[in-house]
Specification:
The complex is a heterodimer of chains A (113) and B (111). With 113 residues, chain A is mainly beta. Chain A is built from no helices and eleven strands. In chain A, the strands form two sheets. In chain A, strands 2, 4, 5, 9, 10 and 11 form a six-stranded mixed β-sheet that branches. In chain A, strands 1-3-8-7-6 form a five-stranded antiparallel β-sheet, with no helix packed on it. Chain A is globular and about 40 Å long. Chain A starts with a strand and ends with a strand. With 111 residues, chain B is an all-beta fold. Helices cover 0% and strands 51% of the residues of chain B. Chain B is globular and about 35 Å long. The chains are: A mainly beta (113), B mainly beta (111). Chains A and B meet through strand 5 and strand 10 of A and strand 5, strand 9 and strand 10 of B.
Chain lengths: 113, 111
């Protein structure tokens, strides 16, 4: 079983809708969680980081973390066609000592105009 | 804002040849990470350096080696290249235990 699991999708939503992306991880000592967006052939671009239980909002993006359930999610409100990309969940499974990131396989999001 | 710089952006090599990839971190970042991303795959951690010392090692083949220099730039040396080494190679940089920011990547094709 992979240490960081994501629904591979594809996830398709209409423009203006809320897109919900989910991620689970295997190690309870994990302290740092990240969402990256990756367009095809391009490098991962940081969207959000979250370290504490609860919600963290930045513009149209909200990250949610539940360490007891080992679950982190990303909500994208008012989805735009330009949000169409692969979203990678990344977790520091070392417990914060060295920030070696382990990635999930990514969820491909398509926002339809 | 300055970003991570990687060179070359594209590289074509033949089997059994050697390749060197370079990474220049964001100014004042002293930690560098290397990742390999095969087609349709997620990025796989290879190796990282903090203050010119190796800080962690992942699934890096013995044919690969890397180092970080006094100006904090890093080089990934790949020898005896195989077809399976064809991938995108990303470098990321951070401040100590900080958020990682990725460079544009080097696309390596081995023929």
């Amino acid at each position: 079983q992979k240490e960081v699991e994501q629904n591979s999708g594809p996830l398709s939503v209409p423009e203006g809708a809320i897109a919900s992306l989910n991620c689970t991880y295997s190690d309870r000592v994990s302290q740092s969680f990240f969402w990256y967006r990756q367009y095809s052939g391009k490098s991962p671009e940081l969207i959000m980081s979250i370290y504490s239980n609860g919600d963290k909002e930045d513009g149209r993006f909200t990250a949610q973390l539940n360490k007891a359930s080992q679950y982190v999610s990303l909500l994208i409100r008012d989805s735009q066609p330009s949000d169409s990309a692969t979203y990678l969940c990344a977790v520091d499974l070392s417990g914060g000592s060295n920030y070696k990131l382990t990635f999930g396989k990514g969820t491909l999001l398509t926002v339809n105009p | 804002a300055a970003g991570v710089i990687q060179s070359p952006r594209h590289l074509i090599k033949e089997k059994r040849e050697t390749a060197t990839l370079k990474c220049y971190p964001i100014p004042r970042h002293d930690t560098v990470y290397w990742y390999q991303q095969g087609p349709g795959q997620d990025p796989q951690f290879l190796i990282s350096f903090y203050e010119k010392m190796q800080s962690d090692k992942g699934s890096i083949p013995d044919r690969f080696s890397a180092q970080q220099f006094s100006d904090y730039h890093s080089e990934l040396n790949m020898s005896s290249l195989e077809l399976g080494d064809s991938a995108l190679y990303f470098c990321a940089s951070s401040s100590p235990r900080g958020t990682q920011y990725f460079g544009p990547g080097t696309r390596l094709t081995v023929t």
